[in-house]
């Protein structure tokens, strides 16, 4: 477990921060309660600290952070109900930070259920000091929970949006290099689970520098856009299309064997040659394709497709090389 994990895992960071804050925040109360002879409340506080500490340790040691977050939220909520029963209003005031913590630490639906239960149980105690106090307590707690719900919803939406933007090439709308390894991992796992083949192609435009140099960067951008549109048109929604950088792209095709990859690659090559013109100049593409083989890693698989693409370039460009060793077999235009 490295400190880097905290940078990448917001839920883990929140669990740790909240755990440390709660445990240190409760400690003075524990001392006070034991010093003033409130043994039940003191022991309760220690039990809450121990539960939260165990859940934090579980998350820090690489456990499921969603489960750890839910556990911390459950411990805090249970503790809040118990402290409210034992101490009345002063104990029940812990409900406000607990409601916020529920929505920060647990999944929204679980947090909502937990919060409703906690508010109901805390407000059911006789120790709040009369109907007005209880009514005020319930309304303010409901408002805090409502705001926390909306905040959690909006944050989740924005996080999802940002993840989508971060994974996408802004020019072509293709997925970018960032998520490729994850996608290859997932495709390999799925192929191994189902036993169906999965193909990968690397596609690189030929002489693209010349399009840029002679017609300008904007004309180059237009060609990249046209190319991406064409690949999308010729492939299925379930296929994944990536821009690896510059004029180099990758296509991941679940369910495709070597023959299917050859057909798809040839269809793309043919369409690019016939339908894309970079301001008068013909544009072509070289494609290296392969399928996943037993023992492949995402790196070895991509490398094989890349090597096939370079071979297509070396052999004159505007062609397809399908590499599927062993046994060695290559199909070309
Ligand atoms: N218009 C445009 N050009 C880009 C972009 N990204 C990279 N390039 C250009 O793409 C060109 C890629 O050049 P090369 O890798 O030599 O590609 P090529 O000319 O197709 O050469 P071969 O692949 O060997 O056929 C360079 O001129 C880059 O400046 C982009 O987003 N838009």
Automatic annotation (TrEMBL):
It catalyses: 2 GTP = 3',3'-c-di-GMP + 2 diphosphate. The chain crosses the membrane at residues 12-32, 39-60, 72-96, 103-124, 130-151. It comes from the Bacteria. It holds the Pfam family GGDEF. GO terms for biological process: cell adhesion involved in single-species biofilm formation; negative regulation of bacterial-type flagellum-dependent cell motility. Its cofactor is Mg(2+). The keyword Transmembrane helix applies. InterPro entries: Diguanylate_Cyclase, GGDEF_dom, Nucleotide_cyclase, Rev_trsase/Diguanyl_cyclase. One of its GO terms (molecular function) is diguanylate cyclase activity. Keywords: Membrane, Transmembrane, Transmembrane helix. CDD domains: GGDEF. SUPFAM superfamilies: Nucleotide cyclase. GO terms for cellular component: plasma membrane. Residues 196-325 form the GGDEF domain. Its EC number is 2.7.7.65. Gene3D superfamilies: 3.30.70.270. This is diguanylate cyclase. It comes from Lysobacter spongiicola DSM 21749.
């Amino acid at each position: 477990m490295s400190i880097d994990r905290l940078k990448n895992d917001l839920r883990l960071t929140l669990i740790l921060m909240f755990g440390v804050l709660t445990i240190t925040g409760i400690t003075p109360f524990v001392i006070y309660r034991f010093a003033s002879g409130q043994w039940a409340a003191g022991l309760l506080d220690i039990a809450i600290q121990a539960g939260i500490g165990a859940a934090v340790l579980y998350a820090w040691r690489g456990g499921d952070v969603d489960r750890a977050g839910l556990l911390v939220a459950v411990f805090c909520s249970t503790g809040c109900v118990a402290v409210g029963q034992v101490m009345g209003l002063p104990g029940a005031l812990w409900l406000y930070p607990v409601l916020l913590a529920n929505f920060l630490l647990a999944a929204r639906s679980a947090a909502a259920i937990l919060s409703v239960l906690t508010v109901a149980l805390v407000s059911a105690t006789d120790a709040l000091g009369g109907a007005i106090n209880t009514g005020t307590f319930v309304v303010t707690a409901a408002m805090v929970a409502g705001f926390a719900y909306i905040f959690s919803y909006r944050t989740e939406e924005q996080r999802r949006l940002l993840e989508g933007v971060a994974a996408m090439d802004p020019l072509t709308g293709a997925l970018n290099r960032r998520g490729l390894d994850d996608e290859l991992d997932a495709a390999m796992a799925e192929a191994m689970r189902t036993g169906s083949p999965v193909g990968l192609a690397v596609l690189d435009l030929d002489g693209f520098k010349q399009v840029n140099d002679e017609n300008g960067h904007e004309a180059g951008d237009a060609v990249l856009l046209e190319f991406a549109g064409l690949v999308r048109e010729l492939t299925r929604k379930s296929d994944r299309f990536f821009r690896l950088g510059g004029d180099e792209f990758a296509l991941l095709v679940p369910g495709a064997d070597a023959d299917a990859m050859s057909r798809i690659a040839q269809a793309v090559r043919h369409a690019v040659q016939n339908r894309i013109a970079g301001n008068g100049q013909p544009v072509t593409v070289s494609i290296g394709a392969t399928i996943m083989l037993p023992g492949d890693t995402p790196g070895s698989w991509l490398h094989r497709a890349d090597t096939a693409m370079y071979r297509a370039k070396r052999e004159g460009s505007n062609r397809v090389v399908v590499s599927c060793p062993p046994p060695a077999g290559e199909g070309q235009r």
